[in-house]
């Protein structure tokens, strides 16, 4: 079972959008996927038409069984119209109670211990994370095989990226001390890219000079993303033939290869 986390200690960079689309895309292609909404805002939860619930909190703090914590997403919310969904998509909903998890337990292995229960049942677990770092991030780091870093092509997003990578390095040292494998950087994903603008073109250049092949192709800023969000649908379902959807599929393909 592969565990992938979407991280950047800067809000508004597209973590939730990418987490939901990568999870949905993998499920469409045949994977058994669990998306864990680890952000107290609960936006990955509502993106699939679910209500915000304290399921992640109860999973960690109250030892709630996974069967009661997960919600299965109906294929009509995310599947390509007229095509079968070959896999399955489950979500662990979140709400503001997620923010108090670090106050209720100091066990950084708590999340990893719960995920062990899913070995052989699921193919992929994806975390959508909060922008504000907390002690619960350490629990996510202990559970994660690979990290994807979405970032806008702007200074503050880059600052969040660098801080996130520093914390990943610290977590990798803790993992090493525990006999766990290092966390892989799966990729850095430029989001909301404004093609042809001097600032964003410069930002892409900076990213590629520093991180080289870790930088994925840009996901351009297009109005269809907002339209799909208002409709509470995934692009694969809402606008399957658009260029934005193709860019989303490209991200799914690269995530599958991690």
Number of strands: 7
How are the strands of the biggest sheet laid out side by side?
Answer: 3-4-2-5-1-6-7
Number of helices: 12
Terminal CA distance: 12 Å
Uncertain stretches: none
CATH superfamily: P-loop containing nucleotide triphosphate hydrolases
Radius of gyration: 17 Å
How many strands, what sense, and barrel or not for the largest sheet? 7 strands, mixed
Secondary-structure element sequence?
EHEHHHEEHHEHEHEHHHH
Helix content: 40-55%
How many domains, as an integer? 1
Instruction: Work out the strand percent.
Output: 15-25%
Derived structural class: alpha/beta
Global mean pLDDT: 94
- Look up the CATH topology: Rossmann fold
Q: Could you say which overall geometry the principal axes of the C-alpha atoms support? A: globular
Features:
single chain, 258 residues, alpha/beta, Rossmann fold, 7-stranded mixed sheet, 12 helices, 7 strands, 44% helix, globular
Topology:
Elements: E1 2-6, H1 15-28, E2 32-38, H2 43-47, H3 55-61, H4 66-69, E3 71-72, E4 88-92, H5 101-104, H6 110-115, E5 124-129, H7 135-143, E6 146-152, H8 155-177, E7 184-191, H9 198-211, H10 223-231, H11 235-238, H12 243-256
Parallel strand pairs: 1-5, 1-6, 2-4, 2-5, 6-7
Antiparallel strand pairs: 3-4
